[in-house]
């Protein structure tokens, strides 16, 4: 089972790993695009106003541009520890046992605008680049990534659970992947889409899938696994699942 996670805008600072080695990252087929984007982003950092415009940053976020300037020299850390925020707080990889962490590193991968796809143990620096960013002189990120990342994901010979947000899933859709929508249900039975806290619920799902000893091979077995964990999961056919959360729990 491969679980695809979205990245986060926020990144943990620092690290104790050696500087970025693009050729050491998993999925070496992605190295040429990774190299092009990383060099472009690092060079762009020399022009602060252009970086702000391309990355959608304010003056108060100039430290993010500084991170990009140091892409090839700053320390690295494992990808699952680099990304922070609501989803990654719920995933909480640092609290996993050694065996659970080994499964998480094997099963979890993060969609990245800069690196395309990183596995849990891939050593990466802090950076700033979003799926919707437009780098000067470059095609759209989707145009760059889809031709090379698409085949890599299509070649995965196991169940793929795609928890990426829409903009990152669009970089390289995975035909046949299981997706999960999160809905809030009120006492009167009416439902609405969970927005911000959608990330927390997907983080909990990711933690469950990262640590279970089960190996669901299709959407039906995955649904059964989630239901055994006490989640209210609906399946109306196809590869889409719906997690229904009581309204009073939707913001937790």
TrEMBL record:
Pfam families: H2O2_YaaD
UniProt-listed GO biological process terms: response to hydroperoxide
Cellular component, GO, one term: cytosol
Recorded superkingdom: Bacteria
Annotated region described as Disordered, given as residue ranges: 1-20
Protein name per the record: Peroxide stress protein YaaA
Organism this protein belongs to: Geodermatophilus sabuli
Lineage: Bacteria, Bacillati, Actinomycetota, Actinomycetes, Geodermatophilales
